[in-house]
Amino acid sequence: MVLGAEGDGTGCVLDGPDAGMDAALGALYGGGGAVKRGSAGRSGGLGGSAPNVARWLGDIRTYFPAPVVQVMQRDAIERLGLAALLLEPEMLEAVEPDVHLVGTLLSLNKAMPETTRETARAVVRAVVGQLEERLSSRTRATLSGALDRSARTSRPRHADIDWDRTIRANLKHYLPEHRTVVPERLIGHGRSAQAVRKEVVLCIDQSGSMAASVVYASVFGAVLASMRSIATRLVVFDTAVADLTDQLDDPVDVLFGTQLGGGTDINRALAYCQSKITRPADTVVVLISDLHEGGIRNEMLGRVAAMKASGVEFVALLALSDEGAPAYDHEHAAALAALGAPAFACTPDLFPDVMAAALEKRPLPTP
After folding, report:
1. How many other C-beta atoms can be found within 10 angstroms of the C-beta atom of residue 311?
2. Handedness of CA 218, 222, 223, 228 (dihedral sign)
3. Contact at 8 Å (CB) between 210 and 317?
4. Bridge partners of residue 204, in order along the sequence
5. Coarse DSSP helix, strand, coil percentages of the chain, rounded to the nearest 5 percent
6. CB 235 within 8 A of CB 268
7. Using CA atoms, how far apart are residues 314 and 332, in angstroms rounded to an integer?
8. 316 near 326, Cβ under 8 Å?
9. In whole angstroms, what separates CA 85 from the centre of its chain?
10. Which residues pair with 287 in a beta bridge?
């Protein structure tokens, strides 16, 4: 980028692939003679026509690895106001799918013409498939282990004996002459039954700032719904509440059932979730929100306190994404922490451990 600009004083000129790479970067981040788009004062530009944008999308995929391409696409959408171009099928076919692109497409869902909708669903399905492949196996294994450990039995099979607990419980039966413990009482992990043993409610804020969290939560909701021993309910909200549980078998349908943007009424959403809880001691409620409440604050906190008092495990996630520290309402987060429900951001890779701790009623592995 330093050597490519004209008049940089170095006397060096780029050529070949280096020049192409510099041109692709300059179109987005540099000045030059590119046609400006978006807000006044921004110096980038990708030309005045869709073909130029399509050519640029192809160039950056040629010169840069996929993670860099995804960052540049996100910057182009945010800096240059190119979101509307994603409503054209040929543009969608040229982009590199990622979570942020899915969030942008979902925010454009209502304005999307029918000619673009199927292409958009294909892009979303590709990203969802990648996330499921990355996250599903570990999630099932971690949560199945947590469910097994939560069901203690005094007549375990040999493979299910919890040797650490068994030895601790039988230390008084230690035989010095044989240097061994003779266990009179075995403690083991019970095997998960086919019947529902735990209930999980995912309550997701679908305001525009939570786009990545909505994508990840929908994938995890589908994974949890596939486990017979967990009954999963998925609720999304802004100022209204929508129960998308009947669509959990296809997270793409869930995502297109959301409507990113709008206000936030956490109190109303928690009231709905609370009304659906029938076994509080066996229920985990996961609120995924930046906590910028537009409803009645004291009622929201009262509902959380009432759920915890009844035995519900309550988890508050400020974000469920791979990004850095999110923007959130610090006062509401502190109030939840005072109720014994610490609010923290969570990466997708940490989420299975958080859920396992909640299912076992252990302290949460807060970062």
Report:
1. 13
2. positive
3. no
4. 236, 288
5. 50, 15, 35
6. no
7. 15
8. no
9. 26
10. 203, 316
Q: What are the DSSP calls for 194-251, one per residue?
A: SS--EEEEEEEE-SGGGHHHHHHHHHHHHHHHT-TTEEEEEEEESSSEEE-GGGTT-H
Amino acid at 280: P
Q: In one letter, which amino acid is 72?
A: M
Q: Tell me the per-residue pLDDT of 205-232, one tens digit each, with 9 for 90 and over.
A: 998 778 899 999 999 999 999 888 899 9
* 199 CB-near residues (< 8 Å, 6+ apart): 230, 231, 232, 233, 277, 278, 279, 282, 283, 284
Q: Under a CB-based contact definition with an 8 Å cutoff, are residues 154 and 196 in contact?
A: no
pLDDT tens digits, one per residue of 80-131 = 777 767 777 877 877 888 888 888 888 777 777 788 888 888 999 999 999 9
Phi, psi dihedral angles at 18 (to 5 degrees): -65, -40
CA 127 distance to own-chain centroid: 12
